[in-house]
What does this fold into?
Amino acid sequence: MNHQGFLRSGPDERSPVTASGSPLLPEAAPVVDWDLPGRISAGEVDEAAVLGGWSPKSRYGRRAEVEWVRRLTPTGTVRLGLRAVDDQPFDHHPGQFVGIELGIDGLGYARSPYCILSPPDEERRFELVVRVVRNGPVSRYLGSCHPGEVVAFRGPTGRSMMPKNDERDLVLLATGVGVGPLYSLASHMLRRGFDRRITFYWGLRLAEDIFLTDELDELARHHPNFSYRITLSRPPAGWTGLRGRITDSVPPLLPALGGTSFYLCGNGAMTEEMATALSDLGAADEHIYQEHYFNQKHVPDPLVMAAIRARFVAADLFSPLAHQEARTSLFHLDAPLGGSGNADPTAPTEVGRPVPKVVERASSLAGEAGAG
Ligand SMILES: Cc1cc2nc3c(=O)[nH]c(=O)nc-3n(C[C@H](O)[C@H](O)[C@H](O)COP(=O)(O)OP(=O)(O)OC[C@H]3O[C@@H](n4cnc5c(N)ncnc54)[C@H](O)[C@@H]3O)c2cc1C
It folds into this structure.
């Protein structure tokens, strides 16, 4: 245990240098440690705004024993190894999750889903990676579990992330613990001999949030078609990896969108904004897989979306949105009514909305077609 209170041993030790070109972590990284809160108790019920509330009845009949627990980051991420100890089989596909149930005397039962981190080849054993949320009862429960404890669960259940065929490249985009199912998918596909490109972009806030780099480096070492990059929204001085949120740093790095399936997992704001942008730029919905852990109801702001679209360099797909916007601007349908009928259509709109690159391109194409 180091002075920040998290274990440095085992497969999840944060590696200071990564094969992905992520930088050395600075010696004097800011300490952002907070004591993992223990299990929520009946006395704290007012503080715990449990999603869906506490239910009076237990619903999850399966049982798994916690074999080990590791604190991965000083910012509250833990990894657990479990083994199903009931008499039912435990088979899963990458992307599937288990529901974990916590029961507390005097409160009732709370339940939350967790995606399985480990690839599906370890019989009846599975791993979870959990971000402990301050007022979250189930994540606090998992963060305070000890080896030998038996937890109630259901599953594995949910959609499989396995692609229908092996003919498309995969671009994986995760924030935080959303890395779990995408790591499971990548390692499973690569072990099966998948030979298309898999590129993983991982958005985190701080350098202290980084974990799993040993495993990701190993995948990159053994599989030249796999690479990953970390983007930090609050990078420390000296950070040479990507900077900003995924929606800032990744769009300029995607030269083309065709022939690719996109997997988005984690914060619902990121998944929804990226999915919307990809779709606006012409990616078919069947090639965009989304799993949001929280911020489920995020509604992207149109100005934010225009800015994200403008950061994309790829223009290999037909973009229905750009086409429609180009037509609109070509026929001046967005010109303000009244006033001068000869308003300059290229002048900024009243809200100063930036014109996406794809719109500019479509406009010039439309202009060329018109000129011909
Ligand atoms: C399909 C699916 C799979 C999931 N897989 C994982 C997983 O593998 N690992 C994991 O840690 N979580 C995962 N989650 C989120 C998880 O189910 C819980 O929402 C989270 O652990 C908090 O649950 P809780 O019962 O402790 O608190 P809750 O009362 O359910 O939530 C408390 C608050 O925390 C917010 N919250 C939830 N997750 C986060 C987060 N990561 N960062 C910031 N705020 C958050 C919630 O929106 C809510 O406002 C998954 C969610 C879904 C829908």
The helical segments are 137-143, 179-191, 213-222, 246-249, 268-280, 302-311, 320-330, 357-371. The chain is about 20% helix and 25% strand. Residues 50-51, 97, 110, 112-115, 128-131, 133, 135-140, 176-177, 180, 291, 293-294 surround flavin-adenine dinucleotide (CB under 6 Å). The chain has a mean pLDDT of 82.
